[in-house]
Structure formats: C-alpha cells, structure tokens
Mannitol dehydrogenase family protein (Lysobacter soli), 488 residues
Amino acid sequence: MTEQAAKRLDTEALHHLPAYIQRPAYDRADTRIGIVHLGVGAFHRAHQAVYIEDALALDPDWAISGVSLNSRDVRDALAPQDGLYTLALLGETPQLRVIGALREVLAARDEGARVLDRLADADVRLVTLTITEKGYCLSAGELDFAHPDIAHDVLYPTTPVSAIGYLVEGLRRRKEQRLPPFTVLSCDNLPDNGGKLRRAVVAFAQRLDHDLACWIAENGAFPRSMVDSITPATDDALRARVADELGFVDAWPVQREAYTQWVVEDAFCNGRPPLERVGVAMSNDIAGYDRAKLRLLNAPHSALAYLGSLMGIETVAQAMATPELARFVERLMREAIVPNVAAPQGFDAPRYVEAILARFRNPAIQHRLSQIAWDGSQKIPVRLLGTIGDALAAGRPIDVLCLPVAGWLQFVRRQARNGVSLVDPMNDVLSQIGRRTTGDATHDVDAFLALDAVFGSLAGDGRFATALRDAYAALGDGSPEAVSAALA
Ligand code: CS2
C-alpha cells in the first residue's frame, strides 16, 4: 500500500484519485438535498444512490440525506469521508466508482431532531426507504400497533423511533407549515410495497389526528417500486482492494453485481429526479414486476440459503455448483413457481429464469448464504407462502414449494440446538420452538405452524400442513447427507 493509503477518502482526495476511477461528474457543493433516505445500508448505497448519482449530473436538486434509524455505524464510517464512498461493480472486469450522492449521513438515535428538520425542509420532496421487511412493523400486511416501536411512537409522536413514526411526524410538520407532502418511495422487497406503506402511514396518522390522515391520504404519494441487484456484504478483502486502488482508505465501500434494475411507479406528488434518463424503468403497473422478482429471485435465493446452509455450503455460487441443489432450484423455479406468477405483459418467464440462474452462478460474487438466511420469519411469507397459497387455490401441487419452507424449519432447529441465535426479529420464539423439536415431523411442524405472524391462515389448510410435514420428514435429521438425498 502506498504512503497515501493511510489517508481517508474525502472531498480533497477526489483530486488525487487515479484517473481511471470514476467520480462525481458534478460539483457536489452545487447540489441541494432533495431526498431523505431511511435505511442507508449497503443496498441503498449500491443501488438507488447510484441512480441518483447519475441523476445529479442532470439536476442538482436531488442529493441525499442518508439516515440510519438504529445504528451509528454508517454515520461514523462516512461522516469523516464527507459522505463519499466507493462502489465496486463485480464482473469480469471489476470497476470502482466513488459516489457523491450522499451529502449528509445521520444516525437517528443521536440526531432525531435533525432528521425531522430535514423531513420538514421545503427542498426535500422525496423520502426513499430500504428498511428491510421488518422495518415496516407489519402483521398480516397491516401496521402492527402492538409492535414496541409503533406503540412508543403513538405515545411520543414528536420523538419517533420507527420509520412510520418519522414519516408521519415529518408529514405533520409539513402540513402545519403549509408545505406540500413529500413522496414516500419504498425500495424494499415486499409485494405491493408502496400500497402497504401508504396503509401503514395513514393508519398511524389516523391514531393521532384524523385531519392529518385525510391530508396524507388525499395529497401524499406512495409509488410502488421493484429493486434488484445482488449486493454481498462488505468484507475486508473489498476494503483492502479499494485502499490499494484508490490510494485512500474507505471505511465502508460497497459491492454489487453489475446487473441492476429499478422499476418505479410514476406516481409522485412533489416532483422527482429525472429517473427515466438514468436507467430507471418508469411504469404505471408494477404489480407484476415485484411479484415476479420476489417469487422467482428471492424465493430461490432463500431456498439456496436454508438448504445450502444445512449442507454446509457457504455461498450462492458454491450452492449452484452443487449438482443436486442446482437441479432442485431450477425445478423449483420452472415447474413450481413460474405457473404461479401472474406475469406482467410482455414478460418472458423462461428468459427471466435463465438470467437469474446465470446471476446466481456468477463465480465473481461471494454472496454468503448466511446473509440471505437472515430474517426468515419476514422473508418466508412474502417469498414462498404467497406462491403456495396461490398454488393451493388453483389446485396445483405444492410439494416442491414446501421443501425450502421445511429447509427453513430445519435450519432454525439446527441453529437452536447448537445454541446459535438467529438474525431474526422473532429469534426468541423461533429458538424456543427449535430447542423443543424432537425430529418427529408432525410434532415439530405443528409447533412452527402455530406461529400466526408467519403462517397466518395457511396454517389451517390441511393440504399445506401435510405437505410441509412430508417435506420436513424428507429432510430427515437435516444433515448434509439427508438433505442431499432429499434433493436428489
Ligand atoms: C437476498 C436479496 O438477502 C436476501 O434475502 O435474497 O437481498 C437479493 O440479493 C436482492 O433482493 C436481489 O435484488
């Protein structure tokens, strides 16, 4: 590493980067913060912020104030870097690019008042979110008023902790100041993400102030969107490579595959960045896209995560190089999921499946199965159970679809019995059930099926319970040999 490598990436460093490193093509000082982003994690920084980076070269009004709702890590890493960070595009010829779209990074736990000031700032016209499934505090698709964060925010609405609480307090202040609302754009992997967010925000506002709820419902906008790009977590190898190439230390670079897609419903209430000029597909009907992506990419991803982890495999590419697992996931997609995806017009399912499989196989991407395995209680319902419900309603078979669900149960069982806690908001109850499993399919599956927040009404469907017990039994003791035999 050169002598310079000890120095941090920052505004000054931009003048000293190797010429081939792409950097902001606009003057950051001339930009204005027009977007507040809640959940400024790696996915946002590798995806939406990169589109906005391109948009800023066309219109300086849309720089981002990035907010972490829970942790301080991103703020602490990026504040000394003036919000600058490096994006590594993984492909045959890896490329680095320094992104300048984040003009400010706030940690809400310390700087809640500043976050609210931003939300009430007339220049801010768009709030985007990547807070993951659990950040919405939903139960059966509706806002869960029993969730501790929501219960807190109902009591103390001017000092919120949840994303919903921040949005509603920001909107309340705007109404009071006679400012128009901002558009609220969900960028999370949830079906009908904008619709769910609208209902949650309006329901919360309704608890506080009927007029505010009406004002939001009439004047606000909550477009739906579909986001897609595989973004493995940052690791030390990436940090080292970035320092080496840049000649400056970046405390938190991000990486993603070269492929990226963002489909956004064109329904904004207060202007928008020139998204259609930077590769975003603007559409008036995105319902089909988000379902196709969740069912055909995220569901197989979860299948690989749980079945692959049980087999002792570490990454998606390794899982795809394991013949019985690769064969199973292809079958899952082509035979079991495609018939249950009501495709958007012009959608070519076989081509979509082929492209996803090629992305999964990409050996340049070290995407850890353990990362995808997080938050199973939030992911399984939206990725797999909807498909199972549709298949049952149409009288189609569900045995193949139940195998990854059973894989998740076996994974929970294994972690609990090994004393390893899950990265999952339902860790306590899941681990408790996991510890009490006996290996008997009926006993174990029925204990899990009692989790209403996960299985909902599907638990009462005898066909589902039977198929899930069979799949669980087929995975035997969940050992690599047993799983491998079940897939063969
Ligand atoms: C993955 C997604 O971690 C996960 O659960 O399935 O993050 C996936 O990589 C992205 O949705 C791809 O767009």
Notes: Residues 3-284 form a domain with the Rossmann fold fold (CATH 3.40.50.720). Residues 396 and 454 are 22 Å apart (CA to CA). Confidence is low (pLDDT under 50) at residues 1-5.
